[in-house]
Design a protein that fits this description.
This protein is mostly helical.
Length: about 150
C-alpha cells in the first residue's frame, strides 16, 4: 500500500476511532432497536419475511457473535437502520508499522548482540540503540517484510 493511500485510510480511521469504544447493548443491537421501536418479534419477522422463531434465533446469534454479516444487514434494513461494519486500528497505521519495525529490529539485533557478548565483543549501548533505530527505519520502508514471522 502506498504511503498516500495509508494516510488517506488513517484520516478515515481517525474519525472512527472515538466510536471504537461504542459497546453493543447486552442483548444485542437488533433486540435493542426492535424493542425501542416497540416492535414484536412477530412483526419484525413479517418485515424480514421469516418466522418469529427465526427472529429469536437471529437475535441470539448476534449476542453470541455468530450472526453473518448478510443476515445482520437484512435485519438492519428491516429495522430501517444502516449496518456499519469496520475494522478500526487502535492506533494510526504508520505507528503500527513503526512499532512492528522496532520489534523486528530488536529481535534481530538481540541475537547479534548476544553472540558478540559471548565472543567478548559487546557493542556500546548507544551504538546499539542507534543501530536499532536505523534498522527499524529501514524495515519500515519495506513493510511487507515486517510480518514474515508474525
Amino acid at each position: 500500500m502506498s504511503l498516500l493511500a495509508r494516510k488517506h485510510l488513517n484520516k478515515r480511521f481517525d474519525r472512527m476511532r472515538p466510536l471504537s469504544d461504542f459497546a453493543r447493548p447486552p442483548r444485542g443491537w437488533l433486540r435493542a432497536v426492535r424493542e425501542a421501536l416497540e416492535m414484536t418479534t412477530a412483526q419484525f419477522g413479517k418485515r424480514l419475511q421469516v418466522s418469529q422463531s427465526r427472529v429469536s434465533a437471529l437475535e441470539k446469534a448476534e449476542m453470541n457473535e455468530s450472526v453473518t454479516l448478510a443476515s445482520l444487514r437484512r435485519a438492519a434494513e428491516a429495522l430501517d437502520c444502516t449496518l456499519v461494519y469496520a475494522l478500526v486500528p487502535r492506533q494510526p497505521l504508520d505507528a503500527m508499522l513503526m512499532e512492528r519495525a522496532h520489534t523486528v529490529a530488536e529481535k534481530k539485533l538481540s541475537r547479534i548482540d548476544h553472540t558478540m557478548r559471548l565472543e567478548n565483543q559487546a557493542i556500546d549501548i548507544e551504538e546499539l540503540n542507534n543501530e536499532r533505530e536505523r534498522l527499524a527505519r529501514e524495515l519500515a520502508e519495506h513493510p511487507r517484510r515486517l510480518w514474515d514471522d508474525a
